[in-house]
Amino acid sequence: MAHPKEKEWDRLTVASWLDGCAADGSVREILELIIRACMSAEPEEISLLSNLIYTARTGSPGVPGTVDMLTNVKGGSQEERFEGGPQSIATRLAGRLGNDRIRLQSPVRQINSNGNVYTVIRDSFRLQARKVIVTIAPALAGHIIYSPPLQAIRDQIPAEDIYKAILKDFMRCFSPKAQNVQQWVLQRWDNEEYSRGGHHVIFPPNVWTQFGPAVTKPIGGIHWAGTEASPYWSGFIEGAVRAGEIAAKNILDEL
Hints:
Layout: H1 6-11, H2 14-21, H3 26-39, H4 48-56, H5 67-71, H6 87-97, E1 108-114, E2 117-122, E3 126-129, E4 132-134, H7 138-141, H8 159-174, H9 208-211, E5 222-224, H10 237-254
């Protein structure tokens, strides 16, 4: 159900909202830190509406999410860790499916449709199916060739500007001695072919109200099941599992 203020909130960035209600002081600093840590982006880049939705989705049916649930250890998103690492989920699922059904080192390049049949094209082979589930993030999904095509573009920030910003923070936290850096290692996840950014998609102003439903709405027989498509814990492994279950159920209901 749409909120009566959703368009108003979507026009604002988190930063512009903070300008009006928390212009100075430690409150703003804490909220900005939360945005950077949880969204891998700056408050100036994200619409207020998308941030509210992201926070609300840290709940469960009947329990709205909160900032505390998003950031806390006890009773929050950071409370538990996987024994053996989170990759154990994928490893165990792969064991149940069987190696003959899983193709590694075979990224999908193109998805063509011909009526009710879809052809998934990879470098070394083709696969036909009546339904397709795309589980990667929108920024990656946009690099697959579809009919119709999808595109994704992300601006680049000069590395030198990043060094200066990090050095400024280091000096503020650890004294001027921190400026004597011997070596830098800069990892740009937005330049990585199979990540293209942080762990969660970000929505600039005026994007969610126009294109938000496209994150989950199937296009023909192509269903979307990345963590962004989950109604709860979007951006987390929990959200990825939920989105996969929802997409699988929807397809089974259609077949």
